[in-house]
Amino acid sequence: MLGYILRRVAVGIGLVYLVLTLIFLALHLVPGDPALLLLSQGDGASATPEAVERVREQLGLNQPLLVQYWDFLSGVVTGDLGQSFRTSQDVAAAIGERLPRTLELVGLATLIAVVLGIPWGAWAARRGGLVDSTTTTLTSIGVALPVFVFGSVLILFFSLKLAWLPAGGFASMGEDPGRHLQLLVLPAIALAVGFTSVIARMTRSAVQEMLHADWVRTARSLGLSRRRVFRRYVLRNSLNPVVTVIGLGVGTLLGSTVLVERVFNYPGLSSLLVDAVTARDYPVVQGVVITIAVLFIAINIVVDVIYGVLDPRVRR
What does DSSP assign to residue 170? Predict the structure, then answer.
């Protein structure tokens, strides 16, 4: 098992290096001068040559390409992602401030989706009939429902009509734990609806396929109870594709929380990215993209390890 984990980690490190290289090349292969693009305001006014040269020096674009590449990789390894053009704040510090908020939101949404989606899908597959048809209909609606629409409905119903929960904002856990949790509930639910539907649909399909396997009939003919066969064998062997969906879904949520954060005025990593893109704050954009890419790869490594635990054949 240790050798399998080390192989997956080695592959992940290679992927991180490839992603960093692609991000670096994206800056230097796009047409035009990046410094001039950063200074352009879209109103037809051109930046002065002195200002362009200052930005080129700040970005290190006046250095040879290999030197820039080495400085870029060294900075990422040491956690030096540069400084924000807009606020002059250290990019790593800005990401470090926002990232835990997004991870908390994504983590709670994932917990809700897994706790509800897997039992729901397994129950629908086992019961069949009306339960299965209803599940298919509801999960289709959940997948198709835009998150910003559902988020707005949650605010209208639970905040404005019932006044049970605040409409949005953020409060630190250290300063006000109760307020912090209240502000986290609605955005997490809005984010979890579509994810729950995807997990439920995948679990339903996997369990239905497994229920018709020959070895299930063999286990029943040996005298094992239907419930024991289902819980101990069918459900466990159905989890591999579900784990894949969960891993991909968590990675996708990391980069797609922007709508939820905007609707609920939640200051997370995606909001930082959108603000940086709007302000042409290149170091922040680059730092956030690197962070999301590394986290996505790390999540996939964890999924591969879970694969190896659930199915020993994967390790070979």
Answer: -
Give residue 80's identity as a one-letter amino acid code. Answer: D
Angle, helix 239-256 to helix 177-211, in steps of 10 degrees: 140
Pick from 158, 243, 245, 129: nearest CA to 194: 245
DSSP state of 155: I
Nearest to 258 by CA among 280, 276, 273: 273
For 98-279, give the CATH class.
Answer: mainly alpha
- Residue-wise pLDDT for 112-146, tens only, equals 999 999 888 888 888 888 888 888 898 888 888 88
| DSSP structure string for 221-259 | HTT--HHHHIIIIIHHHTHHHHHHHHHHHHHHHHHHTHH
The SS3 assignment for 90 reads strand
User: From the centroid of its chain, how far is CA 190?
Assistant: 14
Residues 303/3, Cβ–Cβ less than 8 Å: no
pLDDT at 250: 85
Give me the residue spans of the domains in the chain. 98-279
Q: How far is CA 35 from CA 54, 158, 282, in A?
A: 9, 47, 10
Q: What is the pTM of this model?
A: 0.78
pLDDT tens track for 179-213: 888 888 888 898 888 889 999 988 888 888 777 77
